[in-house]
Predict the structure.
Amino acid sequence: MAGRWQRLYRGETTVDFYGRRRYGFIFSGVLLVVTVVSLFAQGLNLGIDFKGGVAWEAPVSGQLTIESAKQILKDAGIEETSAKFQVLSSGSDQRLRIQAGEQTEAVQTDVRTKLAEKAGSGEDSVSVATVSSTWGRSITNKAVRALLVFMLFVSIFISWRFEWGMALSAIAAMVHDVGISVGVYSVLGLEVTPATVVAFLTILGFSLYDTIVVFDKVHENTSRFSGSRVSAGDIINVSMNQVLMRSLNTSIAAVLPVFSLLVLGSGVFGAVALREFALALLVGLATGAYSSIFIASPLLGILKNRDPRYAPYRTQLSLGPEMAHLMATGAPASRRGAVITAVADPDASPEAAAAVAETVLSHPPRPRKKSRR
C-alpha cells in the first residue's frame, strides 16, 4: 500500500484511463439524461429574483409560526401552496421569510400589518422586498450571454495556445459540469438564486483550470513522443498519470473550505445565503475534477487518434510495465533495445527498468543452430 501511495505521489502510476473511457462516458450520459428529463418534467425551482414576486421577513416571536403565516396569506387571497416559508437563524435570533408571487401594494401592506401583529412587534420589524419578473429575465439573459462570450474567448485562447481539439474537449467538459450541476438542483428541487448563478460561473473557471493542467502535460508529452510510434491513447494515459496527484491535491484543497463553508456557515451558524452558494460550488468542484479526468482527456484522445500521425497506432495501448517504460524513457517497449534504453536512461527508476526487462525478455531464447563440421 505504501508503495502505491509513493508511486501516486511521484506520478508513476499506470492507470489505464483512456482504455476505460466508456465507463466515464456512460456514467455521464446517464446523469445528463436524468438532467434533461428532470428539466422537462419539473424544471428549476427559480427564486424570487428570477420569476419576480414579494418577500416578507418577520421575527419569529409571539404567536407567529409557519402555520399562522399560512393563514394570514390565505386571508389575503394568496395561495399558500405557491408560497415558500423559510426560517432563517442568526445566532439566537430567528426570522420567518415568506416568498410569494407578485402582489398589489395593498396586499403587501395588509400582510405586513398582520405579520407584525402576530409577532407582537411594530411594522418596522417586518421587511418587504419586491422584485419584478422583468428584472429577473434581464439578469438571466445577461448571465447566458456572459456564459457564451466566456466560452468563445476560452475556445479561441486554447486553440491558439494548444490546438482546436483541446478547445473542443474543454468546452465539452464545461458544458458537462454545468449540465450536471443544474441537474442536481432540478432533481432535488433546490432553489436557484443569483448566488447559485455566481457559483455556476465560478465552477467553470475551476473546471477549466483543472482541464488545462492536464492538457498542458499532454502538449508537453506530444512533443516528447513526437519521434516515437505511440498512440494518442498512450499520450493521454501517461499525461493523466503524471498529473493525477496534482489534480487530486487541487480538488481536495478546493473542496475542503467549501465543505466547511457549507457545514459550518449554513448548518451551524444558519447563514442560508452561504448554503446556496456553497452547495453549488461543492457540486461544481466535484464534477469539474471528474470531467477533467474522465471526459475532457479521453475525448481529446479520440480526436487526436483521427489525426494521420496517430491513426496507424490507434489500436496500440501500453499497459502496466509497458506504460511504466514509456513514462520513464519516452519510447514504447516494443523492441528488445527498450531494455538497454530503460537501464541507460538516468531518469528511469530501477522498478521500471526491471519491469521492462521482464516484459521484453519473457520469451525463451531461440535454440542455436549446430555448426557444421
Remarks:
- The chain has 13 helices and six strands.
